[in-house]
Amino acid sequence: MPAAHSLLHLAAPKSVAPTSTLSLAGAAHLRLLPSRRPQRLVASCSSAHPDLAAFPNPNGLLVAEPAAAAPIDIDVATEAELRENGSRSTRRTKLVCTVGPATCGPSELEALAVGGMNVARLNMCHGDREWHQKVISSVRMLNEEKGYAVAVMMDTEGSEIHMGDLGGAPAAKAEDGEIWTFSVRSFEAPLPELTVHVNYEGFAEDVRVGDDLLVDGGMARFEVVEKLGPDVKCRCTDPGLLLPRANLTFWRDGSVVRAKNAMLPTITSKDWLDIDFGIAEGVDFIAVSFVKSAEVINHLKSYIAARSRGSDIAVIAKIESIDSLTNLEEIIRASDGAMVARGDLGAQIPLEQVPSIQQKIVKLCRQLNKPVIVASQLLESMIEYPIPTRAEVADVSEAVHQRADALMLSGESAMGRYPDKALIVLSSVSLRIERWWREEKHHEPLELEDVSSSFSDKISEEICISAAKMANKLEVDAVFVYTKGGHMASLLSRCRPDCPIFAFTNSTSVRRRLNLQWGLIPFRLTFSDDMESNLNRTFSLLKARGMIKSGDLVIALSDMLQSIQVMNVP
């Protein structure tokens, strides 16, 4: 259908008066007139005009078809939540779990999936490719055999300065006043006592006596006291725990020394091999560490496209350095999403700036229609303890309140003692804050930046903004969107309506990719360009499985016909 003559179909619920007028963003007004059949209202939109004129609908009411007419797939944990609590009580904020030694087994992965894990993250800093391949296979098997829809994210190591593997030890404790050796030399395990390997060959050359060396953003602090060839002698000034491959930053005169870091490549030779591995394994997301510019993101996306024609792999930019902040908007525009990696970011900027920068990144990502993950140290204490601190709960609440798309567990789920409990905390806090937001009617003014690249996209964008407003005013139970590539579902998610968004796609990979976006419940469903037929099948299938019921009020959209309908489930 040409963009200039897109149709905007509406079937009014019982609560909408036959001649009521609803205001639409980007259009003057939509006047609804009665059709030849009861409870049916239709309008046509000529996009050359700001006014929308109405005409009668020649079709009748929806007639449900047998459930066998079209199969439908949904994550089994989400289906159970819909049956138990109803659509309006489902969690909107998505949950990402880092898989590690504590959670890499099939039973542990299934426990995370049952608890609400939407995306499994693989940190390429740890483990070899054989280990990661086993985890990916376990996740895929979980999806295929148990009915989950967990997506897989591969996180590159990046080129920033970090420690080695501690000779196989799980951790090392640095005590106050101890003299440690940080060396670029390679050692055979076990390492000499109080010795750490550093991955950056220029480390001993770049540091100066008197510099402060921070481990993992300040989990331990050392002062450089002597340089001996490839070895740097450092005195521990703030005792703490050293973990394998922890990030290292060195400060001089109160500022982080970044000149050499800025010259290091964003994607190393190891990263490229890992990326090839991720492409071959068909991961859903590749997160790029220490992104410095949009050029890196564009280069990687071109590489993925060349290596895997038609690939749906999304590229996530990790914002974790001063260079990332300098080029923030261009990086986010180029990427398919962003991660606020607060741990490494907090090692390069003053701690007091982290909260405001997090809020800035979350807001910018939403404006540009890019999913955003808030990560690092959300529930750090739960690595060791079964309950979080109240400050950590407040931190999680703030991220949910900022309307971030997703929250991420790192060490809590990778090596923590209580990964399942940590996931429950994220889920329960998210649900409570989201419910409070709806109860208090905190409807945000939809002052979102125009992200359309064409006139047709502009129509879709305005339809989604209007649908979100209507969903809030009419208190609908769900918004249905039929989408092949996921774009219209993403536009709806950006609007953050009160109700959940049922996103129907015929692509398994698109379905998994939509798992990262706020409020979306992705289904795999074979559908056509005939909205009447699609709705008939969908209503029948969802009712048969107890996910909706007769009388529920829904809004239905399609990115194929750029249509919108409002109706009660028959």
Automatic annotation (TrEMBL):
One of its GO terms (biological process) is glycolytic process. PANTHER family: PYRUVATE KINASE (PTHR11817). This is Pyruvate kinase. It catalyses: pyruvate + ATP = phosphoenolpyruvate + ADP + H(+). Residues 461-560 form the Pyruvate kinase C-terminal domain. Its EC number is 2.7.1.40. It comes from the Eukaryota.
